[in-house]
């Protein structure tokens, strides 16, 4: 099957309005009056961001959801995406694999009300490379940023932390117990789209590289210090069960795709009400102060020192 | 140097309005009233789309220009781009390489009045992978499409053909003569941005996979047949010098990034005047008729048969 048949079979059914059925090299997109475009792009490389034997449909869904999480962090409504795939020959990435891959895309297109706009398909000499550029929109000037945290604000996170990081260890055979739900958390994150946090939070981002490192981004961009309290961090019991043996991995682990926000005290009620109305768990985990850097305190109010801060790609 | 310093050093100076200095995972873009967004995406893989020892600045410029050519084919004005790079460790893709790569991006940003909006940087287990999603805009409803060709239209191309295909052969050591200008054509295409062809041409695309194959796309999308005349194809003398030995490669070769258009007879004067005013060479190379498929006729009006039609990526 050639490139054009491949695109027609697997991706044309996913094409939305503006995609011109993927028959062009490009696509168009209209923007509602008074809105601005919000974009983000994430690449997933076989062996680095997913494993060769991960199910194709979960690889597809994670690819979309990492990008959806970036939009959520900016307060944008998801609309479309561009998909780029570079496919190694002579491997197991065949018709069956891509049929399943496309079914994962289709499921999340439906769930998040988005559609495929276009992209590119090439060969690859070695790993399977997947890239999505996602397009959303937000009312003009209402994008959430990282640089608005102020001393006195609280630090909040959605959901729970550490499950995906442990799930990866299970997948790598490095964690006994093999809880399927941890693997599921690693494979299919839950992007927190659909909230309306403009005017409530002072800064926001998603936790992809680990809580401490991502707090570092907000601290740096906002010119503030952040203190986190270990005992306040939201962990499920299945994560707590590994705390004694994998504490640093849990505290620093990435791939959560939860929202990390700072919020002035005057807006804390509004934040809690809004998240409750959307069934999004919410926990206050720290405070913003003057200064710089990120500190995590243990139950005895002692600073925890880590051997690293989080995930960097190279 | 970590991921964040790498981005700060090489890519932050390229960031435009809406990019938030690349400090977010995302970016924003406003669209002028009455315009719609036009997007295209192209991936370049080391060993497939460029050679490991190609100069970094020309790799960068080709990456942008392939994408710019897609916008040109849709009649859109280029505005911004998202850049994704996946970098193999332990190779020659080091600080020096990326300094030169960024200088190529900077040169073409200036030349085409575009800026970097955002993107993603990851590692790669093997090849260097580069991807750009380019964003342009066009007056609502005025995007050029591939499906409007009508029987009776002429088929037109800009510039000249075959130089890039021969340039690649020079680079691969498969073509004696080693003309530097052919290599230059392969490395740095000239996207035909800046024309205003809406209402003049009936269909348009850019020639990236080879004239015959790309005519096939217009023929298929428009439901027409296209006949090309070999003797009318625009070749420079340096290309003609290889015609006896490399005819099929020249006639089918890709990477031209010239515009391929169909134009009704009533608009031919307008097309020629417009291209002349913009110093864009223009040649009528064929006709559109009822039927399907693409035929190329030689000087004796005999159908030329090819062993393949053009470039497919897998």
- Gross morphology of chain A is globular
* Radius of gyration computed on alpha carbons of chain A: 20 Å
Q: Give the SSE string of chain A.
A: HEEHEHEEEHHEHEHHEHEE
How many β-strand runs of chain A? Answer: 11
Oligomeric state: homodimer
Q: Strands of the largest sheet of chain A, in order across it?
A: 7-9-6-10-8-11
Instruction: Provide mean pLDDT of chain A, rounded.
Output: 93
Number of domains of chain A: 2
- The CATH superfamily title of the largest domain in chain A: PurM-like C-terminal domain
Structural class designation of chain A: alpha+beta
Q: Which topology of the largest domain in chain A does CATH recognise?
A: Phosphoribosyl-aminoimidazole Synthetase, Chain A, domain 2
CATH architecture descriptor text of the largest domain in chain A: Alpha-Beta Complex
* Major sheet of chain A: 6 strands, mixed
Helix content of chain A: 25-40%
Note the gap between the termini of chain A: 36 Å
CATH class of the largest domain in chain A: Alpha Beta
Number of helices of chain A: 9
Report on this structure:
- Two copies of one chain form a homodimer.
- Chain A is of the alpha+beta class and 314 residues long.
- Chain A has nine helices and eleven strands.
- In chain A, the strands form two sheets. In chain A, strands 7-9-6-10-8-11 form a six-stranded mixed β-sheet. Chain A has a four-stranded mixed β-sheet with strand order 2-5-3-4.
- In chain A, strand 3, helix 3 (95-112) and strand 4 (115-124) form a beta-alpha-beta unit.
- The model of chain A has no long low-confidence stretch (mean pLDDT 93).
- Strand 1 of chain A pairs antiparallel with strand 2 of chain B, so a sheet runs across the interface.
């Amino acid at each position: 099957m050639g490139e054009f048949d491949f695109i027609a079979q697997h991706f044309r059914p996913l094409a939305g309005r503006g995609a011109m059925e993927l028959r062009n090299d490009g696509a168009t997109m209209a923007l509602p009056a008074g809105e601005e475009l919000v974009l983000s792009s994430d690449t997933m490389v076989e062996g680095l961001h997913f494993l060769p034997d991960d199910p194709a449909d979960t690889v597809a869904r994670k690819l979309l959801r990492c990008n959806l999480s970036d939009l959520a962090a900016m307060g944008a409504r998801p609309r479309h995406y561009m998909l780029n795939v570079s496919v190694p020959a002579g491997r197991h990435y065949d018709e069956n694999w891509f049929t399943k891959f496309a079914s994962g895309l289709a499921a999340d297109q439906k769930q998040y009300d988005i559609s495929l706009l276009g992209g590119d398909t090439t060969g690859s000499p070695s790993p399977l490379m997947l890239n999505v550029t996602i397009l959303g929109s937000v009312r003009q000037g209402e994008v959430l940023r990282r640089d608005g945290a102020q001393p006195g604000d609280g630090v909040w996170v959605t959901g729970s932390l550490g499950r995906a990081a442990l799930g990866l260890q299970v997948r790598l055979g490095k964690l006994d117990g093999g809880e399927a739900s941890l693997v599921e958390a690693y494979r299919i994150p839950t992007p927190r789209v659909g909230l309306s946090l403009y005017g409530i939070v002072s800064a926001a981002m998603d936790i992809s590289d680990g809580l401490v490192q991502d707090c570092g981004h907000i601290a740096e961009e906002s010119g503030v210090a952040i203190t986190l309290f270990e005992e306040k961090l939201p962990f499920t019991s299945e994560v707590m069960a590994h705390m004694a043996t994998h504490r640093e991995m849990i505290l620093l682990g990435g791939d959560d795709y939860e929202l990390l926000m700072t919020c002035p005290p005057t807006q804390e009620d509004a934040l809690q009400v809004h998240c409750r109305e959307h069934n999004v768990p919410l926990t206050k985990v720290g405070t913003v102060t003057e200064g710089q850097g990120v500190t995590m305190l243990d139950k005895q109010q002692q600073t925890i020192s880590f051997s690293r801060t989080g995930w960097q790609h190279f």
